[in-house]
Amino acid sequence: MIRSKVEELQAIFGEKNVLTEIEDMVAYSYDASHVEIQPEAVVFATATEQVSKLMQFAYREKIPVTPRGQGSGLSGGSVPLKKGIVLCMDKMNRLIDFDPANRLITVEAGMTTADIDPIAAKANLFYPPDPGSVAFSTIGGNVAENAGGLRGLKYGVTKDYVKMMKVVLPQGDIVTMGNKCVKHVAGFNMEGIFVGSEGLLGIMTEVTLALLPVPEHRESALAIFNSLDGAARAVSAIIAAGVTPSTMEFMDNVTINSIQNFKDCGLPRDGAAVLLIETDGEKNSAIAEMAKVEVEVKKNDIREFARAKSTEERNRLFEGRRVALNALASVRPNLILEDATVMRSKLPDMVRGISQIAAKYGLQIGIFGHAGDGNLHPTILLDMQDKDEKARAEKGVAELFQLAIDLEGTISGEHGIGLEKKPFLQNQIGAEGIRMLQNIKKTFDPLNLLNPGKMFDMPEQQSA
Length: 464
Ligand SMILES: Cc1cc2nc3c(=O)[nH]c(=O)nc-3n(C[C@H](O)[C@H](O)[C@H](O)COP(=O)(O)OP(=O)(O)OC[C@H]3O[C@@H](n4cnc5c(N)ncnc54)[C@H](O)[C@@H]3O)c2cc1C
Description:
The protein is α+β, with helices and mostly antiparallel strands and about 475 residues long. The protein is built from 15 helices and 18 strands. The protein folds into 3 domains: about 90 residues, 2-Layer Sandwich (Uridine Diphospho-n-acetylenolpyruvylglucosamine Reductase, domain 2), CATH 3.30.43; about 120 residues, Uridine Diphospho-n-acetylenolpyruvylglucosamine Reductase, domain 3 (2-Layer Sandwich), CATH 3.30.465; about 190 residues, FAD-linked oxidases, C-terminal domain (Vanillyl-alcohol Oxidase, Chain A, domain 3, 3-Layer(aba) Sandwich), CATH 3.40.462. It has a 7-stranded antiparallel beta sheet, sandwiched between helices. The longest helix has 23 residues. Bound molecules: flavin-adenine dinucleotide. Flavin-adenine dinucleotide binds next to strand 3, helix 5 and strand 10.
């Protein structure tokens, strides 16, 4: 980037908050997916007004800007496809307001997700969305990807907790959307449009989130199955029986063994699959719900139903689930992680279909994920340098997405479209759906400068 433009950035952000050295460009060229593209400059915002000035500058100079939280996204969302400037939001991480009476918290968008709970806990409240990346992802990144988590089955996902937000629009306007009231219908549901917008429509700088009272009690158990099918059927049976556990996480044998090789978390190496299940709420009802769960799982090819006898045992099992991705990543040089999602009743078909795809293309696929949400993470373990294996994996991924669509599901339950799933979105929402998204993008960002090249192609994209 030419000197005068760097100086203008330094005038907005201060010298220490502007990076242009090559080693820094490498550090901000990737997220947790596979794509790597170096920006021309990286800036760190500490105030909304700076973000506004940046966008005015970017629009005047026609420079692409890519917002970034902690870069833990799994779909290439914070990779600067068209180079330009990476805007890091992680220094905007302050608490703005904690309002226990209304069960609300307002934070800067760069706050780490896990930093909410210690504040909320002071009033016996908690923030339910808990992605596996809770310890490092940001609230802005969670909102932009509509992140889910291990408690999504009972408590929903990020969109269910977003009340209000301050956003900088692509041309620099600062707007506040939503409201702190329980009910609010003054104008369009604009905060809703920003949830899952993947950094394409504006930059969130502040977010107000709803909190819930901490449940009085929780019961945790590990159900160990003799077959993948049994575990998948058990999920459907539990829901059909009218029970809503807070957590119902699935791990297959490949995942179990990868975790145990990575760290001993007490998982059974010889189980075909496990479900990590938790019920919570008022003590008697949590206990009664777990009893119903036990009845249902025992009808479905189960080998053992083991209740966690202590908090330590429970935490060890949950740690196993949280390190699943890292553990699978250590098996082969690369992995391709997907998050195709189906209705829970279609989980057995999905699991069978994934196994067939693995056999057809000779692929090693580990499956884990939020089974209670119908959200599996089939994870292809491979060596991308092996051209043949890579080509087989790409065919497998395409079939996997088609399988989810054929089962009335979705190509993404929580990781977003970003770059890697972009070619498949039209299969799910049609050409008209893509046109509608393009028109919305054009309304917000007529020059296509904010995170260009993601989710869908813009007709005039070549000129950005
Ligand atoms: C080990 C691991 C486990 C994970 N588990 C889960 C899981 O259980 N559930 C789940 O949903 N995801 C999970 N993820 C994916 C990822 O953590 C989430 O998508 C998370 O929300 C990304 O947050 P981030 O701050 O890292 O955002 P980034 O990756 O930096 O950015 C993600 C997107 O948000 C945009 N963005 C970031 N901040 C802003 C902002 N302030 N305003 C506008 N746009 C913005 C970026 O442009 C980009 O498009 C996991 C990832 C890893 C590595």
